[in-house]
Specification:
175 residues, mainly alpha, flat
């Protein structure tokens, strides 16, 4: 009987050892699996702050961080964009803090929400095209797409009405 218990324990320990490497996540990597992008946890946090600037939290609606729209953005860029777009996205993400420190003297995370919005709109209105501008356009488009397709919008904000719509029998007619 003790031999069966020992073999059983040995298999349990071997199974635990086989599973253990998948349980320890690398804290320097992004929190989701990406095939084509190599994003660090710090860059993911910066993208979350940027998404929160684009879509801030209000009393009526959750913000981009609450809805995890930065993760949606990363996954969409990883899966749906071309290699050139992904390269522009990564170089723009990595250039965001350095560019803002050169222009304003502070990093993106230390700015107030009003300062963030004004600086980002200024970058988007520039005449020249850069990787930073392409990154901001992609991020803005994907954050808004994630919001409009979220459970919050689809269940709480949109009121579904059957086609062709409601019947209004007392609609004023002009002669």
């Amino acid at each position: 009987m003790k031999r069966r218990t020992a073999i059983k324990s040995l298999f349990i320990i071997a199974g635990g050892i086989a599973i253990l490497p998948s349980c320890s996540g690398d804290p320097a990597k992004a929190s989701i699996a990406l095939n084509h992008l190599d994003v660090s946890a710090d860059e993911e946090a910066l993208l979350a702050e940027l998404a929160e600037t684009i879509l801030p939290k209000t009393p009526d609606a959750p913000g981009a961080k609450d809805m995890k729209l930065h993760l949606f953005t990363l996954k969409m860029v990883d899966d749906c964009h071309t290699r050139e777009d992904r390269d522009q996205f990564l170089s723009g993400l990595r250039a965001l803090d350095t560019t803002l420190e050169q222009q304003t003297g502070t990093s993106f995370r230390k700015m107030t929400p009003e300062q963030r919005a004004s600086v980002l709109s200024g970058i988007l209105k520039e005449e020249t095209t850069s990787d930073l501008q392409a990154f901001l356009k992609i991020t803005k488009r994907r954050v808004i797409q994630g919001f409009t397709q979220s459970k919050f919008v689809m269940t709480d904000k949109k009121q579904y009405e059957l086609v062709p719509g409601r019947y209004d029998g007392f609609y004023p007619v002009q002669s």
